[in-house]
Automatic annotation (TrEMBL):
UniProt entry tagged with the keyword Chaperone: no
One protein family per Pfam: Tetraspanin
GO cellular component, one term: plasma membrane
Domain of life: Eukaryota
Transmembrane listed as a keyword: yes
Stored InterPro entries: Tetraspanin/Peripherin, Tetraspanin_animals, Tetraspanin_EC2_sf
Family: Belongs to the tetraspanin (TM4SF) family.
Name the record gives this protein: Tetraspanin
Transmembrane segments: 7-30, 50-69, 81-105, 210-232
């Protein structure tokens, strides 16, 4: 029983730290989706992030209850803690499953969407939504094409409708220090060499993986807290059913 009290108190402090880590991961996922939402057809991609933020907010009073119960047992506090742990377990497991699913799904979705944007890019009328999106991505991430700059060679003549000109890449592929760069392939050192797909995938995949492990670890801690709380409740028999 004494060990259960000490463990519950320790887990109470850990819950506060986990809340901060979970809130950071949730906000990171939400902001990343906000930055690149035009690349995804599904609008609920940020759902794991919102679930994580909700779990982080609930973790704060949960930690307070755990510490309070470890100092002085109260039937009402013990019951409330059990209910909160159950809610947190549901939120954490849902967020972990969604994060794992989206991590796999995003790879094919990003590749398909970016391939479409490259194909639809119009060099003569670069103000279209697709053209603007691709230019923004390439300038922001300092990249060129999907896998690399050679992706533009396959679509330049057909998509840009410039059969009499040499193949070149959009000016958004040019490095900022080369102000005279116009996408000419004769000066590859003026262009970004890395493709945009990897630069997009890496932070999104990291965010989802971070969320998955945070929620998994949190679920284990919640089970330990539930067992510890159950041990304390067992040594304090019910006098009535008001706790339910």
């Amino acid at each position: 029983r004494a060990f259960a009290r000490y463990l519950l108190r320790f887990l109470g402090f850990i819950f506060w730290g986990t809340a901060a880590a979970l809130a950071f991961g949730g906000v990171f996922v939400i902001l990343k989706y906000k930055d690149y939402r035009y690349l995804f057809q599904e609008s609920f991609l940020s759902l794991p992030g919102w679930l994580a933020v909700a779990a982080a907010l609930i973790l704060l009073p949960t930690g307070v209850l755990a510490i309070s119960i470890s100092a002085k047992s109260s039937r009402y506090q013990q019951g409330a803690l059990m209910y909160l742990l159950l809610v947190l377990l549901c939120l954490g497991m849902s967020s972990a499953v969604l994060a794992q699913f989206y991590s796999i799904w995003m790879a094919s979705e990003l590749k398909s969407t970016m391939g479409y944007l490259v194909y639809q890019y119009n060099g003569t009328h670069g103000q279209g939504p697709g053209s603007r999106a691709m230019d923004v991505i390439q300038r922001k991430l300092q990249c060129c094409g999907v896998q690399n700059y050679t992706d533009w060679l396959k679509v330049t003549a057909a998509s840009w409708r410039l059969p009499d000109e040499k193949a070149h890449v959009p000016e958004s592929c040019c490095k900022e220090e080369y102000s005279q760069c116009r996408g000419d392939l004769g000066h590859l050192e003026h262009l970004f060499q890395e493709g945009c797909l990897k630069k997009l995938e890496d932070p999104l995949h990291f965010a989802m993986l971070y969320m998955f492990w945070c929620c998994t670890v949190l679920s284990v801690l919640e089970l330990l807290a539930g067992v510890s709380n159950g041990i304390l409740m067992r040594h304090q028999p019910f006098h009535d059913l008001r706790i339910l």
